[in-house]
Design brief:
- With 568 residues, this protein is α+β, with helices and mostly antiparallel strands.
- It has two domains: 2-79 and 105-257 and 402-437, no CATH class; 265-363 and 450-567, Gamma-glutamyltranspeptidase, large (L) subunit, C-terminal domain (Serum Albumin, Chain A, Domain 1, Orthogonal Bundle), CATH 1.10.246.130.
- Helices cover 34% and strands 18% of the residues.
- It is built from 20 helices and 23 strands.
- A hairpin with a 2-residue loop joins strand 12 (414-415) and strand 13 (418-419).
- The longest helix has 21 residues, at 307-327.
- The chain starts with a helix and ends with a strand.
């Protein structure tokens, strides 16, 4: 860990050398902007862009690029993401950069012979790769809201790839885990492992010249460098000629990718306005649905140490996750009853199912207004290939962006020094359940359902109070829910809010309690309340946030992660 912190300081020193070209506008409400990211080098990249006069949009995109370099197992331009962006004056827009399935994909996409692949067998190789959306998201967000020149936001990431960065214990641990799995391509193994087959060690200065060269080209040529020409051809060739699960992607699939602006999903909670990303994200409906159920109960009076409060959080999650499983999918293919799921009368009825004295014996999806589809699929795996980052600049512009390549190192395939996602395994491998079609089944051009939950919370004064999100697959809504409750209900500073233990109840009767925390004491309490299966879960959560508190900005990163926040 000493090596890692030293590397972080070195990276900060490197970025601090950038010229301070902008002065604080007299009308700016904050003296400095703040960036929170899952890696200090990425946070430093965002802070550098703010110092150069960039805004929150510019900084968030610089963070995404830097994470492509320093956190290749989790995020990057080979994947997709969701961005919420508030202009500092209350105007909120969202960008859906989720990956898409090739046009040739059918509900039997993951069928081999007369059987469907298991989830783990479907990940490696080409068929799990969706057309990446992050670059298109970047281009559109920068075109509409960026302040600095496109090429300028690439410079921190290019330096990190060209000049090198120190490998962290977390990256080394992920590489060690995948040493013998056969999931990583020959190109990836040649880059990240030595001749002896061992992963690059923590503390090693690591360079990725191929990625540096491609980022330089992308910075000069814009989106055409990604979605056309050599890079597009390399993506198609790599996935279609993969040794395992070859795809049927075309150049037209790549060239036709478009980012989508979708209406934000917003609701109120205790005089606060909360907004998140609409479908195909299930994050907003799950988080906001759970909060709508909890609003009936006096969590502020109970406090963070109340077993009853955590029991109620569990029950609200169980109901919200049940609805998530049933109804959420790509709204371009399935009618998703978002308004019905968040309607006050619907949530009030769901809240009536919850008791402070006893756990619900079973949970089932509700019947919200607007239902036109009857079945989704299982909750999905917990993955580690995601990263969230939040930025609020000194003018008050706020960005909340979650980026992913799905599982660690995505599909294991590489192009131009970056990993390609395995996002299509977020679609349902089985197209039917109980003889009925699954809403999240594979279809050509479809965007997979996601748990990502970038969120912006507005205070009673109508101004941005919190930009927050998390990584961790289906645990993301639980992490974001906990953070919002901690800030809004329990008035905890954002660093304490993220440090609180996470309790995760993904529908059904199973409750996961975080190992080696005060929550272990909740196990007998929850059991006595009738929760049938309470399990321990390792401490592997990863949330990031920036809060406005007492007129000042404060950033925080989950203490379980290697993340940090940085001021400009």
């Amino acid at each position: 860990m000493v090596l890692f912190r030293s590397a972080a300081l070195a990276a900060l020193a490197l970025t601090s050398a950038a010229p301070l070209t902008a002065k604080t506008p007299a009308s700016a409400p904050f003296a400095q902007g703040v960036v929170s990211a899952a890696d200090p080098r990425a946070a430093a990249a965002g802070a550098e862009i703010l110092r150069q006069g960039g805004n929150a949009a510019d900084a968030a995109l610089a963070v995404l690029l830097a994470l492509t370099v320093v956190e290749p197992q989790s995020s990057g331009i080979g994947g997709g993401g969701f961005l919420l962006l508030d202009d500092g004056k209350g105007k909120l827009v969202t960008f859906d950069g989720r990956e898409t399935a090739p046009k040739a994909a059918t509900p039997d996409w993951f069928k081999a012979g007369d059987k469907y692949l298991s989830y783990m067998d479907a990940i490696p190789g080409g068929k799990s790769v969706g057309v990446p959306g992050n670059v298109a998201l970047m281009v559109e967000a920068h075109r509409r809201h960026g302040k600095l020149k496109w090429r300028q936001i690439f410079q921190p990431a290019i330096r990190l790839a060209r000049d090198g960065f120190v490998v962290t214990p977390r990256l080394n641990a992920f590489l060690d885990r995948f040493t013998a799995t056969g999931r990583l391509s020959d190109e990836a193994r040649a880059l990240y492992y030595g001749p002896d087959g061992k992963a690059v060690a923590a503390g090693t200065l690591f360079k990725n010249p191929q990625l540096a060269a491609f980022l330089e080209r992308l910075s000069r040529e814009g989106s055409k460098a990604f979605y056309k020409g050599q890079n597009a051809a390399a993506i198609v060739s790599t996935v279609n000629n993969a040794p395992r699960n070859p795809s049927a992607m075309t150049l037209a699939d790549v060239a036709s990718y478009r980012v989508k602006s979708r209406a934000p999903v917003c609701t109120s909670y205790r005089q606060h306005r909360l907004c998140g990303m609409g479908p195909p994200s299930s994050g907003a409906t799950t988080v906001l649905g759970a909060l709508g159920i909890l609003e009936k109960f006096d969590l502020p009076a109970m406090g963070k140490d109340s077993p009853t409060a955590w029991h109620l959080i569990v029950e609200a999650q169980r109901l919200a996750y049940a609805d998530r499983e049933r109804y959420l999918a790509d709204p371009d293919f399935v009618s998703v009853p978002v308004a019905g799921l968040l309607a006050p009368d619907y949530l009030a009825a769901r809240a009536q199912l919850v008791s402070t004295e006893r756990a619900m014996p079973t949970v089932a999806p509700g019947n919200p207004a607007g239902v036109m589809v009857a079945l989704a699929d299982h909750a999905g795996p917990v993955e580690n290939g995601t990263s969230h980052f939040s930025v609020i600049d000194r003018t008050g512009m706020a960005a909340s962006l979650t980026s992913t390549i799905e599982g660690p190192f995505g599909s294991g395939l590489m192009v131009n020094g970056y990993f390609l996602n395995n996002e299509l395994t977020d679609l349902s491998i089985l197209p039917e359940r109980d003889g009925r079609p699954v809403a999240n089944r594979v279809e050509g051009g479809k965007r997979p359902r996601s748990s990502m939950a970038p969120t912006i919370v507005y205070g009673p004064d109508g101004k941005v109070k919190l930009a927050v999100g998390a990584a961790g697959g289906v645990t993301i809504p639980a992490q974001v829910l906990k953070a919002i409750i901690a800030v809004v209900d329990w008035n905890l500073p954002v660093d304490q809010a993220l440090a609180l233990p996470v309790i995760y109840a993904p529908g059904g009767n199973t409750v996961f309690v975080e190992r080696e925390t005060e929550h272990e004491k909740l196990i007998p309490v929850l059991t006595a309340l009738g929760h049938k299966e309470v399990r321990l879960r390792d401490r592997s959560f990863k949330a990031n946030a920036v809060e406005v508190r007492d007129g000042k900005l404060a950033g925080a990163a989950d203490p379980r992660s290697e993340g940090e926040s940085a001021h400009q």
